Amino acid sequence: MLDLSYDLPKVKTIAGAKHDWELVIGMEVHAQVSSNSKLFSGASTLFGAEANSNVAFVDAGMPGMLPVINEFCVEQAVRTGLGLKAQINLTSAFDRKNYFYPDLPQGYQISQLYHPIVGEGEVLVEMGAGSAKEAPTARLVRIERIHLEQDAGKSIHDMDPAMSFVDLNRTGVALMEIVSRPDIRGPEEAAAYLGKLRQILRYLGTCDGNMQSGSMRADVNVSICLPGAYEKYQETQDFSHLGTRCEIKNMNSMRFIQAAIEVEARRQIAIVEAGGSVEQETRLYDPDKNETRSMRSKEEAHDYRYFPDPDLLPLEIEQSWVDAIEASLPELPDAKKARFMSDFGLSDYDASVLTAETADAVYFEAVAEAAGDGKLAANWVINELFGRLKKDDAGIADSPVSPAQLAGIIALIKADEISGKIAKDLFEIVYTEGGDPAEIVAARGMKQVTDTGAIEQAVDDIIAANPAQVEKAQQNPKLAGWFVGQVMKATGGKANPAVVNQIVAKKLAG
Amino acid sequence: MSIDIETARKVAKLARIAVPEERLPALAGEFNAILGFIEQLNEVDVEGVEPMVSVTPMRLPRRVDVVTDGSQQEAVLANAPDAREGFFAVPKVVE
């Protein structure tokens, strides 16, 4: 369903002392699997619970405790892989990644280094569809793999000057690590990639995508290269054409990710242009200083001594099970957007806005079908409803206007029962007071006046009361608009503007 | 494969085991003896033999996604050298 007719987005370049530099970015996104219990224990995954209350002895690394895999977490990883059009590995295995940290009581993280559950896939990242004016561009970012692993606990450093406080509630919660190829070419693309991934995961229901609570976090690999070098890499898949990369760890803000990439690229350019060479290392972004700095203390600990986890047999799944999961996949963003464009005649921009979230798309589709007009429905949902909800800081789920009510308003416009201006008033009434749009229009006398007699009377009154304006308008027909405005005012906006225009023109001429 | 004193020191550090400097040569020697013993396995021809992961023909046991554990803060913290307000309290570790 991929629409590859998009042009490629422009590669981000940064001007150096002698020439431009290009950026090459790969991302490792950690997405928390939506599940009730943890990957290898029966403790709850609920966020925000009292410290250490969602902890099983397995999570606390107590001696003799054995991990038992949560089948639903496996299903969620498979579903995610299918959603990213990826290869599903029917046999995968778990390895231990060994390191010491207070929030990792086992002394190792159970992960999948050698045999991940999901192989190569892809994500179509659209750019520029964020505004109605720009022509959309898109890049197909390749996914290298997705593996299942345990999350670590949480350390809190600011509760005591001399101590760190450790909460193991998050320890052992299932994560999917989604690893991209270095196909991302700028800070904005990196943010758009993360946004698209988040959208797909939310459609699939495999991750809630809540970045603030840490459900999605990204490690970003950044390197720089000369123009032309990246194309050589793509031809040969030989990394020697690219610069040495640095990994910026653990970011959960789109804004900071973009800032970090930019500042890290500039740091690398300065090093190379001064004749030095970039050292491959792990860095942290400091948003207060807008700089990245080395996590040197982590370097030695990076000898993780991976080995197959002897507590866990290989994970074998059946093709029939994978097929059943595939059959249950919802319509995904790319397909939904393409369908909205072809079935309802929507623009790329409108279709993007309306498919951002499943709930938005479902709402729009209900309105469009009931009103029998996709374009009008799109205008009303995007401009009026979303605008009004935003004012209240509310989401579509909180909308006091149901799709049937909104379709009712649109039906009244289409039937010429109410004018566009009155429709907006009507919308506000339905939004704040509720009720059936047609009944409100009847009860409150909001019906559009198309009765030419009544309109003629109103026009005559205005003309009679404003002889000076009439004279000016007769010399300059552009001033007729003033009369139209006065008539609309006098009729409380209920007069049909087209009819008013016509009558005003005729009377002024006449 | 041969383990020198430097490697022995690194392995000890990664395992967070304090090994006095004078014990390192002996430790490296022990590592070498163990690795030498295991290296004998390389003499066996396993070409085309599927790796054995278990001695019993067992499928990885699975669990359904329900909450069956937790809500035992006191028990979880029982062995902690220091615990405050429901947290493990450890010497400050900050990057």
Automatic annotation (TrEMBL), chain A:
PROSITE patterns, sorted: GATB (PS01234)
Catalytic activity field: L-aspartyl-tRNA(Asn) + L-glutamine + ATP + H2O = L-asparaginyl-tRNA(Asn) + L-glutamate + ADP + phosphate + 2 H(+); L-glutamyl-tRNA(Gln) + L-glutamine + ATP + H2O = L-glutaminyl-tRNA(Gln) + L-glutamate + ADP + phosphate + H(+)
Coiled coil recorded as keyword: no
Ranges where the Asn/Gln amidotransferase domain occurs: 362-508
GO biological process, one term: glutaminyl-tRNAGln biosynthesis via transamidation
HAMAP family (UniProt xref): GatB (MF_00121)
Family membership noted in the UniProt record: Belongs to the GatB/GatE family. GatB subfamily.
Name of the protein in its database record: Aspartyl/glutamyl-tRNA(Asn/Gln) amidotransferase subunit B
Native source organism of the sequence: Thalassobacter stenotrophicus
Gene name tied to this protein: gatB
TrEMBL record, chain B:
Domain of life: Bacteria
EC number per UniProt: 6.3.5.-
Family matches, as Gene3D superfamilies: Glu-tRNAGln amidotransferase C subunit, N-terminal domain
Reaction(s) catalysed (UniProt annotation): L-glutamyl-tRNA(Gln) + L-glutamine + ATP + H2O = L-glutaminyl-tRNA(Gln) + L-glutamate + ADP + phosphate + H(+); L-aspartyl-tRNA(Asn) + L-glutamine + ATP + H2O = L-asparaginyl-tRNA(Asn) + L-glutamate + ADP + phosphate + 2 H(+)
Cited function: Allows the formation of correctly charged Asn-tRNA(Asn) or Gln-tRNA(Gln) through the transamidation of misacylated Asp-tRNA(Asn) or Glu-tRNA(Gln) in organisms which lack either or both of asparaginyl-tRNA or glutaminyl-tRNA synthetases. The reaction takes place in the presence of glutamine and ATP through an activated phospho-Asp-tRNA(Asn) or phospho-Glu-tRNA(Gln).
Any GO MF annotation of the entry: asparaginyl-tRNA synthase (glutamine-hydrolyzing) activity
Organism, scientific name: Thalassobacter stenotrophicus
Family: Belongs to the GatC family.
Subunit structure: Heterotrimer of A, B and C subunits.
Protein name: Aspartyl/glutamyl-tRNA(Asn/Gln) amidotransferase subunit C
PANTHER family listed in its UniProt record: GLUTAMYL-TRNA(GLN) AMIDOTRANSFERASE SUBUNIT C, MITOCHONDRIAL
Keywords recorded for this protein, A-Z: ATP-binding, Ligase, Nucleotide-binding, Protein biosynthesis, Transferase
GO biological process terms on file: glutaminyl-tRNAGln biosynthesis via transamidation; regulation of translational fidelity; translation
Annotated HAMAP family: GatC (MF_00122)
